[in-house]
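Progress against Task 2.4 (sequence-to-structure conversion) is shown through the following example record, which the project officer requested during the mid-term review.
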Amino acid sequence: MRKNIGDQSISTVFVLIIFCIFAVSVLMVLMLGVSIYQNLTEISREEQDQRLALSYIRTKVRSNDESERLHIGEFHGHPALIYHEVFGGRLFRTVIYHYNGWLNELFSEADLDFSPADGTQIMPLDELRLEELGEGLIMVATGTRSLLLHTRTRLANTASGSEPLKEVLPR
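Structure tokens generated for the chain above:
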């Protein structure tokens, strides 16, 4: 009779050990699944932000692509997409640039000097690369995504962004 009780306790301990191993394995798989899901969600969010930023820039280019008002330049050392508009006989500029992890936009009179921190933060963005490739072609890149835009007019690429704009002012 004693031998049966010892065999039963060894069986019970063995079953409990197997159950604990199974429970720990299930918890580890669940934790791994949660980690993978979080990583995929973060990658998806970053990709969506990049697509949204490119769409935003494409819309700005399409809505302001006339009379050589649009060009690539620099805004306080940051590559920028700059376009000018005349309202009430005064020249205004809109600058789209990357600063401190954000896509920013600054609208001001063309003669006023603002710092990059003065712009409006549009959306978080890791990087923004702008490049004029030739006759009216702009390459816009944000991280792993890029966009090639063809403007209706030839771009006027200058470092300061102010030279080709003199033609925009009414005489």
